[in-house]
Design goal:
Blueprint: H1 2-7, H2 15-22, E1 26-28, E2 33-35, E3 50-53, E4 56-59, H3 62-68
Antiparallel strand pairs: 1-2, 3-4
Length: about 70
Amino acid sequence: MTLKILKTIPGKINHASFLKQVANSKFDLGGIAIDFTQNRTQSSDLVLINIFTPQGFQDLKKDMLRDMFQ
């Protein structure tokens, strides 16, 4: 997304022009909509947490997360 935003900035790339272009950006990541328009600072409500284990990446379940903080 960052590269796409940078490529579509008209004129000079700087902090202000980057933020302005972000505010006009929407993306579809294979069915997951990312929308920075309409004054949104959070592009998606979807949060997935994965952990790396010897068996590879695994979803972090609610009980695993709870146990980590107890």
